[in-house]
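Sanity check. The docking grid for zinc ion depends on where the pocket ends up, so I'm generating a full predicted complex first rather than guessing from homology. Inputs follow.
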Amino acid sequence: MQLKHAALVIVDISGYTQFLRQRSVTLLHAEEIITQLLESVIDIAEYPLVLNKLEGDAAFLYAILDDNHEKAAKDILKQTLAFFPAFRRTATELSHDTSYCSCNACTQIDRLKLKAFIHHGEVVLKKIRQFEELAGENVILIHRLLKNSVDADEYILMTKSFSALAGEVPSFSKKSYREKYDNADPVQIDVFFPPAPIPPLELHTYKAKKPRMFMAQIKRLFSHAFGKSKNQNFKHIENEKIGFFAYIKEMVG
Ligand SMILES: [Zn+2]
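Predicted complex below; grid placement will be based on this.
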């Protein structure tokens, strides 16, 4: 068990709860869409920023900071900014790919938006087998910040102490808030809003790959059935809705 200074980043996809409906096809497709969107973000994260775990419709990343906190904070902010167009591109691709499907998940991909939360501080790092477990007040705090008084669905939220290190976000507008959780002291946060909805990265060479969704589901069918699923964190969705038999039912039905 070690005490480390780390930057903590959560990316959270909003619109997910409204997105879930009763029908199993929608759930299957919603899970696939969310997974692919989270992967599009995680895939471009670079050292020292690493994925800790998927948490439903969110991903928790962290970076152990060396002595130069300011330089690291600027790098992490730069990486976080790049998540947004990558997310938007994958969302646009998925909309094209799933244009054959009229389910609630596939027709509402455009409504999904990305939020990012960044904080830094001391954390307890425990290694359990190959997994790094992060704990401590700062880990609790960044998770608490997911529930806040900011009325928007696309932004970068930083604790004041992180934004003091990282500096301003060019062209984003900034608003400061105070959030209060239980009996703890209020938390000062700076929230940065993009000037307009963030456009996707260039798409002109993109051709819709209709089989993508289908192939992705076949692959996941095998991982659900025979291997360790990458998406063990989708525990809030009942297994019969995303498990082996749901996939079979969708394919034959
Ligand atoms: Zn669908």
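Relevant for the grid: Residues 25, 29, 98, 101, 103, 105-106 surround zinc ion (CB under 6 Å).
Also worth noting: Residues 227-239 have pLDDT under 50 and may be disordered.
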